[in-house]
Design brief:
Keywords: Membrane, Transmembrane, Transmembrane helix. There is one protein chain. The model is unreliable at about 1-5 (pLDDT under 50). With about 170 residues, this protein is an all-alpha fold. The protein has one domain. About 75% of the residues lie in helices and about 0% in strands.
């Protein structure tokens, strides 16, 4: 028996974690970029569903603007980083649908989606505690905003984690 061999279930779980994490990284890197945020703000109608959704995708924004306070730059970057790290961690820790005897596509989708909702909520909560106006009230509000982002954008990570089949 080889020490490096992995069972099919372990390989499927790590692959689902990897594809979901890659989707989260792409969402944060591309949609959270200053260029996308600027484009969404200037070229979409906030009163239309598509415009609202594209603006929402820019929520995990990370910026390096010199005219913003250092605390804001730090918390924005921390929020984006925590979102990816927590998404990867939760995708790994929620392997139930991938290892169940009758793993269904719907349960895999909801597992990835739910991991991203929780990751966004916790990333917003933790990063807001380091902000200039940090308080429990602002942290709870930020967590609600993050969870809303995760709910509407997390299906992308859920669909991507479906690609993680052995």
């Amino acid at each position: 028996m080889s020490l490096t061999s992995r069972s099919g279930l372990d390989r499927r779980r790590s692959t689902a974690t990897g594809t979901g994490t890659l989707a989260a990284l792409v969402l944060v890197a591309v949609c959270g970029s200053p260029a996308f945020g600027r484009w969404a703000g200037e070229n979409t109608d906030p009163n239309s569903a598509s415009g609202w959704f594209l603006r929402l995708l820019a929520w995990p924004s990370w910026r390096f603007d010199s005219d913003r306070p250092v605390e804001t730059l730090f918390t924005d970057g921390l929020r984006a980083l925590l979102l990816v790290v927590l998404a990867a961690t939760l995708l790994y820790l929620l392997p139930g649908p991938q290892t169940a005897p009758a793993a269904g596509l719907v349960s895999q989708l909801f597992s990835g989606w739910g991991a991203y909702v929780f990751a966004a909520g916790f990333a917003a909560l933790f990063s807001s505690l380091f902000g200039a106006d940090s308080s429990l009230f602002t942290a709870v509000q930020a967590a609600g905003t993050g969870a809303a982002y995760g709910f509407f954008a997390g299906w992308i990570v859920g669909v991507a984690s479906l690609g993680g089949r052995a």
